[in-house]
Amino acid sequence: MPELPEAETIARGLDAAVAGGRVARVRIHRAEVVEPLSAAVFRRAFTGRRIARIGRRGKWIVGLLDDSQRWVTQLRMTGRFTWRAAGPRQPLRAEPHLSVSLLIEPDGGEPGVLRFYDTRRFGRMRLLAPAVYAELDARLGVEPLSDAFTPARFARMLEGGRAPIRNWLLDQGRVAGVGNIYAVEACHIARLDPRRAAGDLDRNDVRRLHRAVRRVLSDAIARRGTTFSDYRDLLGGSGDFQNALRVYGREGEACPRGDGTIERAVLAGRSAFYCPACQR
DNA sequence: CAACGGTCCTGTAGGC
DNA sequence: TGCCTACAGGACCGTT
Q1: CA distance linking residue A33 with residue A118, whole number of Å
Q2: Near strand C (CB < 7 A), which residues?
Q3: Distance in angstroms (rounded) separating the CA atoms of residues A170 and A240
Q4: Under a CB-based contact definition with an 8 Å cutoff, are residues A141 and A174 in contact?
Q5: Annotated catalytic, A246?
Q6: Counting Cβ atoms within 10 Å, is residue A68 exposed (0-12), middle (13-18) or buried (19+)?
Q7: What pLDDT digit, counting tens, does each position of A49-79 carry?
Q8: Where in the numbering of this chain does the Formamidopyrimidine-DNA glycosylase catalytic domain appear (predicted)?
Q9: Centroid of chain to Cα A214
Q10: Helix, strand, coil: what percent of chain A each, to 5?
């Protein structure tokens, strides 16, 4: 579920909580989360490292370590972090869906425990050498909130695209961080039918979609993301953007623009919501 | 080679 | 109430 705004919210929280801190202990509760590394190798490489800062690239959470490795986490659908004061040692009890726990000694602060939970177990955590991180970075497309994402560049990218615009936006190699919710919402804001072929958009369509993508992502960051069920920030708080959604998940409801009833279409196996009256 | 379908998992909502 | 199916924020991988 987590898309760019959720990853940004989590990354900011992590940076505030643990930047400057030292990784004092690493526990891998589910080995698949660190594949293709073994749990032992991951633990050895991570333990003792200092975390310089934590940010985001697309939907990936990226921490820079003092040995210039990158600690990267893909939340995929249900990955979630929690941060709590370490406190006295608790008896071990079953922690459903717990994948990784890290004891962090912050720079000057009280030690805390960072836990990574993942119900559906699609999430992944890796340690990448600089050259390997560079490959990941190169594979991802432009950051939609950066100055590099201009209407002109967007127009060039869209040229000749045959995929429906909603599908086109989900490709992380083009615009990094847009997922299904925000792709669908951006199409509504821009008054574009999500099934339109990417290459068919005219200059005005492109300009509106460019603004819509940036606007929906920054509004969602300001509201700390969208929570349906799983997504939470570091302290367990919900996002607020679900209350601002115009069409996503609202099949059968009235279009917020007034005319029309929201419909659902399945594109490439995934739901797209749109208003047939105002999206063309 | 862009685009799409299948697949990896578990939980939940809704129909009957 | 309970059983069964469909679907969920992602993205790799193989095929067309």
Answers
A1: 9
A2: A 1-3, 6, 58-60, 74, 76-77, 120, 122, 170, 172, 179-181, 226-231, 270-271
A3: 22
A4: yes
A5: no
A6: exposed
A7: 999 999 999 999 999 999 999 999 999 999 9
A8: 2-123
A9: 15
A10: 30, 25, 45
Footprint of strand B on the protein (CB under 7 A): A 32, 96-97, 119-122, 161-164, 167-168, 171, 198, 229, 268-269
- Rounded CA gap, A198 and A166, in Å? 8
Q: Tell me if residue A3 is catalytic.
A: yes
What are A151's two structure tokens? 């209407």
Residues in chain A: 280
Task: Name the nearest CA neighbour of A101 among A123, A119, A88, A86.
Answer: A86
Q: Mean pLDDT per segment of 10 residues, for chain A of length 280 residues?
A: 93 96 97 94 97 98 98 96 84 83 92 96 97 96 98 97 97 97 98 97 98 98 90 89 95 92 94 96
Taking a C-beta distance cutoff of 8 angstroms, is the pair A219, A243 a contact?
no
Selected catalytic residue, list A56, A57, A59, A70: A59
For strand C, give the nucleotides within 7 A of a protein CB: 7-12
Phi, psi angle pair for A63, to nearest 5°: -105, 135
In the three-class reduction of DSSP (H, G, I as helix; E, B as strand; rest coil), residue A261 is classed as strand
List domains and CATH numbers for chain A.
Answer: 4-139 (3.20.190.10), 151-274 (1.10.8.50)
At A270, the amino acid letter reads R
Round to a whole number and report the distance in Å from the CA of A121 to the C1' of C3.
26
β-strands A70-74, A60-65 pairing: antiparallel
